[in-house]
């Protein structure tokens, strides 16, 4: 048995939550492998919208086990709030969520360090969600962090106090005013919620599931262009958002990776600072934002919007080994007479099909134009029902990227999904 993977190929917000929810009936286990509550995975069904930040998106399917992997960083307060909301909706989640002992904990002082660091950057800030993600990963790689398994140890409070004291010394250097008393109280209360769930040696458990032919779907957060190594550095997240992150974030050998689903929007969006070659500053950009409801599920921030970028998409497909593409939000383009796609860049006067190393490089996209379909596609239930213009658009993308588009989303609801 192999671990199949779902990950974003742009700058996050591609619609991974909906896709995982749609695919979950084919899998027994859904496992988040990186990121933290900076993720906002949105799902819509039965006329309601749900947003998950830490809990995997398979939670609404009663047959699935949901694992929070070792590569995830976890804020107990946010996790406890999610649990409360799910239980309020009548979801029976005990026994369906398992948490890796090796997942790292986001402390209240991590959030303060995040805010202080971002404030100190001034105009060079990266657009952090201020959830404490970066400082937590820094403690992880600096071998200082606290892990979920530590909460079961008798000296946990001493470990917590020592790391908190270190953070407080660091905060003095920022001259940053803060008060964590109330949040810290909530944090320790939330640890009791965490203890209600199975805290596991996730690498062994996942291996056992595979050996007993239980299908596993690994769920990524953010997107490939935000990867700490291969994204638009330094405007990136703090983890490996690519397929390679599945191996380190779940304890899975590379030889056990199976199908890799790469999700992309029919256009592009980005939250926060950083390069965005196809960004639009005109009426078309405003229309994409308004029709696509492009506001962050976690931060509420308006997303930057632009045309589809095939240079970036081909790059993301290459580094992830994607063998199945999933196009999201095709319906947002319903009202456009003309649709553009960037097929190359002009960088320093030279045309190229490679994504540049320098995040500050002046990039001019070279566009190919397509006729829009100018009709509502949300009622389509099969690929044959889609308009010719959309089929041409999809066929062009497949030819350029050399990977088939297997799923097309024509609306936000789980039912508005076309499988090819």
Describe this structure in words.
The structure is a single chain. The chain is an alpha/beta fold. It has helices at residues 16-23, 76-88, 108-121, 133-141, 156-174, 181-194, 202-211, 244-250, 283-291, 310-320, 388-401; strands at residues 3-8, 29-32, 41-45, 48-52, 65-68, 73-74, 97-100, 104-105, 198-200, 216-219, 257-265, 268-270, 304-306, 308-309, 324-328, 338-347, 350-352, 363-371, 405-409, 417-419. The strands form five sheets. It has a ten-stranded mixed sheet with strand order 9-7-5-2-10-1-11-15-19-20, with helices on both faces. Strands 14, 16, 17 and 18 form a four-stranded mixed sheet that branches. A two-stranded antiparallel sheet has the order 3-4. α2 (76-88) crosses α6 (181-194) and α3 (108-121) packs parallel to α5. The longest helix has 19 residues, at 156-174.
Placed side by side, the strands forming the largest sheet appear as 9-7-5-2-10-1-11-15-19-20
Shape: globular
What is the first-to-last residue Cα distance? 24 Å
Secondary-structure-derived class: alpha/beta
β-strand percent reads 15-25%
Average of the residue pLDDT scores: 94
- Regions with pLDDT < 50 over 5+ consecutive residues? none
Question: What's this entry about, in short?
Answer:
With 420 residues, the protein is an alpha/beta fold. The chain is built from eleven helices and 20 strands.
List the helices and strands and how they pair.
Layout: E1 3-8, H1 16-23, E2 29-32, E3 41-45, E4 48-52, E5 65-68, E6 73-74, H2 76-88, E7 97-100, E8 104-105, H3 108-121, H4 133-141, H5 156-174, H6 181-194, E9 198-200, H7 202-211, E10 216-219, H8 244-250, E11 257-265, E12 268-270, H9 283-291, E13 304-306, E14 308-309, H10 310-320, E15 324-328, E16 338-347, E17 350-352, E18 363-371, H11 388-401, E19 405-409, E20 417-419
Parallel strand pairs: 1-10, 1-11, 2-5, 2-10, 5-7, 6-8, 7-9, 11-15, 14-16, 15-19
Antiparallel strand pairs: 3-4, 12-13, 16-17, 16-18, 19-20
């Amino acid at each position: 048995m192999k671990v199949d993977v779902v990950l974003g190929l742009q700058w996050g917000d591609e619609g991974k939550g909906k896709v995982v929810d749609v695919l979950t009936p084919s899998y027994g286990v859904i496992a988040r492998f990186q990121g933290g509550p900076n993720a906002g995975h949105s799902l819509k069904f039965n006329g309601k919208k749900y947003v998950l930040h830490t809990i995997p998106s398979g939670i609404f399917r009663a047959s699935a086990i949901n694992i929070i992997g070792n590569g995830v960083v976890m804020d107990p307060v946010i996790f406890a709030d999610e649990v409360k909301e799910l239980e309020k909706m009548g979801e029976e989640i005990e026994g369906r969520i398992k948490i890796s002992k090796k997942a790292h904990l986001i402390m209240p002082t991590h959030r303060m360090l995040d805010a202080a660091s971002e404030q100190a950057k001034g105009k060079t800030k990266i657009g952090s969600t201020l959830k404490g993600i970066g400082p937590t990963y820094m403690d992880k790689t600096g071998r200082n962090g606290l892990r979920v398994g530590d909460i079961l140890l008798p000296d946990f409070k001493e470990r917590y106090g020592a790391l908190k004291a270190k953070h407080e010394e660091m905060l003095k250097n920022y001259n940053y005013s803060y008060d964590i008393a109330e949040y810290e109280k909530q944090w320790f209360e939330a640890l009791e919620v965490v203890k209600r769930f199975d805290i596991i040696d996730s690498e062994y458990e996942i291996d056992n599931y595979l050996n007993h032919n239980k299908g596993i779907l690994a769920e990524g957060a953010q997107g490939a262009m935000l990867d700490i190594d291969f994204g638009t550095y330094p405007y990136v997240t703090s983890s490996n958002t690519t397929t390679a992150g599945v191996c380190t974030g779940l304890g899975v050998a590379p030889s056990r990776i199976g199908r890799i689903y790469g999700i992309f929007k029919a256009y592009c969006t980005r939250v926060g600072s950083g390069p965005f070659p196809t960004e639009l500053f005109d009426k078309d950009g405003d229309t994409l934002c308004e029709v696509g409801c492009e506001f962050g599920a976690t931060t509420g921030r308006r997303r930057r919007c632009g045309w589809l970028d095939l240079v970036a998409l081909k790059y993301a497909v290459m580094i992830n080994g994607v063998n199945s593409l999933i196009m999201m939000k095709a319906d947002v383009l319903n009202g456009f007479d003309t649709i553009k796609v960037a097929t190359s860049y002009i960088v320093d006067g030279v045309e190229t099909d490679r994504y540049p190393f320098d995040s500050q490089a002046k990039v001019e996209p070279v566009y190919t134009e397509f006729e829009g379909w100018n009709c509502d596609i949300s009622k389509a239930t099969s690929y044959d029902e889609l308009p010719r213009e959309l089929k041409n658009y999809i066929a062009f993308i497949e030819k350029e990227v050399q990977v088939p588009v297997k799923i097309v989303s024509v609306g936000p609801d789980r039912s508005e999904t076309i499988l090819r």
